[in-house]
Write a structure and sequence with these properties.
alpha+beta
């Protein structure tokens, strides 16, 4: 009893918030955080948070006077790498490749403000966890001071979009209401944790200067998909901070834009988010978890079966090294490891679910336990050393199948386009040898870089069939058969509408270390067929080729140093430790083209350590005929 009273006295501010029915952290959460902070791994997290906060305080804490721009503009136009942020240089932006500061470009300056706001968001969040864990008042004061500064300037920010115009999706701090919502989702949590140390006048100033006008802005933003999920997350957080159930109810129950409407519309029955990408699965999932946590104080439980499936589905579809294929507008290098903080929360919210324990154990084979969210999950996680054997799996609604043999993985993608973030790549494949990809989907680069639309979003940059040097149409393929076996499996899928008048199907058979890939296209008319494999290592052939300039369409110009070989018999090559043999029927003549093209997009340094080069090597098998059939035999 005495210990409980002492805990209550230490944390009267937080407990008072809980008693009035509006809070983000329960008494149990706070108890977990404080207990975890006393463990060896928890102490390490606390020290890291303190170091990060102190590092931020070495630079000016004054909130920018200027509205923020678009983060995708914060990239070197020559090397496509993100600029190195410098608090002291808001108008000079350093490229680590150029070794040069870029100046005189307002879009870069506005993007700098975006990054500054994002760093401040991290600062507020870190201070929040430190105050919850230690009870040291100084961290609540840091939150209060920054929130007061934002409140003094937020009303002066003009509504604007990424083009610096007034638009339906603009923000005030940022050029997108999407970013505005994400910032509010965590800033409100920090505010509510620090609120009990504030005076009534300070509370009113933050409410009038930031919370109310931000909620008014987001209530006007009626979107769909991941945007609206984040709008709702921001609104729920603002509703809790303002103790306004009307805002919370709108965010949850609006028939067109509310949380439940978005979950019904965009979450497939197999658990995947409808934009068809691991990156654009976890992005809205983060907002959904924040929303579910926030409404607990209103006795609303959003931790249902659908949300469980959203957490479980990608974990069941990862490679052996816990990375994902970068489908659609996905960032290359997305991984289960990068999302481990969500599974710390999930383990708690789903009553110590063993599946999520296994996810945590797998992730912590590769990374230390450093996420602040781990403090909310005060348990020891037993270490495991072996890689569990995962079965082949098929995600029926999302439309991709995963064949597995030990650590080897082959993925085929055939499902819905994926909305605004989809790529024209029906029947594309990725092949992973257990350590890294050897046939890859490179995902996307930053949206402000020309190669985004001219290369990464083209059919040619995917391991599928290109017809007449054109992109596939937006379409949905169909699964014809799927068989999971102990040492692999078999899948057959078709894409009858990707090209007018061309019926395509692809069959993959994985057995131990061998993969058979049979791609067929049938048409009544003659076409130029390019069967493409996007390789992560340069293939080695036994015979020489001739140089060729590819100009079939603008996308082909991205393939440099191209070499062509003409064949009428099977051709073989080595790709790293893997080998492949390509067969065409009846000694049909075909051309083999290999070149070098943009590969892993810049900014993925941690992933690049697995590969010798940031480039990819398109291997193209070309024929001109009515029909096309190819059989590729892999050993890897």
């Amino acid at each position: 009893m005495r210990n409980r009273l002492l805990l209550a006295l230490l944390f009267i501010p937080c407990l008072l918030s809980a008693q009035n029915g509006y809070y983000f952290f329960t008494e149990s959460d706070i108890s977990q955080i404080r207990s975890a902070a006393k463990t060896e791994w928890g102490k390490s997290i606390i020290e890291s948070l303190k170091d990060t906060v102190e590092a931020r305080r070495e630079y000016p804490l004054t909130v920018p006077l200027l509205e923020g721009g678009h983060i995708h503009d914060y990239f070197c136009p020559e090397h496509q790498v993100r600029f190195s942020f410098d608090w002291n240089k808001p108008e000079a932006h350093y490229c680590s490749q150029c070794k040069h500061y870029w100046t005189g470009n307002k879009r870069y300056d506005w993007a700098w403000v975006n990054v500054a706001h994002t760093h401040n968001y991290s600062y507020l969040r870190n201070c929040m966890y430190l105050y919850l864990a230690t009870g040291e008042r100084v961290y609540a004061e840091y939150i209060r001071n920054m929130m007061l500064d934002y409140a003094s300037k937020y009303l002066t920010y003009l509504e604007h979009d990424t083009a610096r115009k007034v638009g339906p999706w603009g923000g005030k701090m940022f050029g997108q209401s999407l970013d505005e919502s994400a910032w509010a989702s965590d800033a409100c949590r920090a505010y509510m944790v620090a609120k009990p140390i504030m005076t009534p006048e300070e509370i009113k100033e933050i409410e009038k200067g930031y919370l109310i006008p931000c909620s008014q802005l987001l209530l006007k933003r009626r979107g769909t998909a991941n945007w609206q999920v984040w709008h709702n997350s921001g609104l729920i957080a603002l509703g809790v901070a303002l103790q306004d159930d009307n805002i919370i109810n709108t965010a949850l129950n609006d028939p067109e834009c509310g949380y439940h409407a978005q979950m019904e519309r965009y979450v497939y029955n197999d658990g995947w988010w409808g934009e068809g990408s691991p990156t654009y699965h976890y992005y809205p999932l983060h907002a959904i978890i924040l929303s579910a946590d926030a409404v607990r104080c209103r006795n609303i439980n959003l931790y249902d079966e659908k949300l469980y499936k959203m957490l479980a589905a990608p974990a069941a579809g990862a490679y052996a090294d816990l990375y994902f294929p970068a489908h659609n507008d996905g960032w290359y290098g997305e991984s289960l490891i990068a999302q481990v903080s969500l599974y710390e929360i999930a383990y708690q919210r789903y009553n110590n679910d063993p599946f999520f324990m296994n996810v945590l154990q797998q992730c912590y084979r590769y990374t230390p336990r450093t996420a602040a969210e781990a403090l909310e999950n005060c348990i020891e996680i037993p270490q495991i050393r072996s890689i569990p054997s995962c079965p082949s799996v098929h995600f029926e609604n999302t439309g991709y199948a995963v064949l597995r043999s030990d650590a080897r993985t082959v993925v085929i993608k055939y499902g819905p386009h994926g909305g605004g973030h989809g790529h024209p790549d029906k029947l594309s494949i990725s092949v992973h040898n257990g350590d890294k990809e050897i046939v890859s989907d490179m995902g996307t680069c930053a949206y402000g870089v020309p190669a985004f639309t001219k290369w990464y979003r083209k059919t040619l940059s995917h391991s599928t069939l290109s017809v007449d040097a054109k992109d596939q149409r937006e379409s949905t393929g169909k699964l014809l058969s799927f068989k999971a076996r102990k040492n692999g499996g078999e899948v057959l899928a078709e894409a009858p509408e990707a090209y007018p008048g061309v019926r395509m199907n692809r069959k993959l058979v994985l057995k131990k270390d061998k993969l058979t890939d049979i791609y067929t296209a049938l048409s009544d008319n003659e076409h130029l067929y390019d069967y493409v494999l996007i390789l992560t290592e340069k293939p080695v052939f036994g015979q020489a080729g001739e140089s060729i300039n590819l100009n079939d369409s603008p996308a082909y110009s991205y393939i440099k140093d191209a070499v062509i070989r003409k064949q009428s018999s099977p051709i073989s090559c080595k790709v790293g430790n893997a080998s492949l043999v390509i067969h065409m029927p009846d000694k049909q003549e075909f051309e083999v083209i290999i070149g070098e093209a943009p590969g892993i997009p810049p900014g993925n340094g941690s992933v690049l350590t697995k590969y010798d080069s940031p480039f990819c090597y398109p291997l193209i098998i070309r024929i001109k005929d009515k029909n096309f059939k190819i059989r590729t035999e892999w050993k890897f």
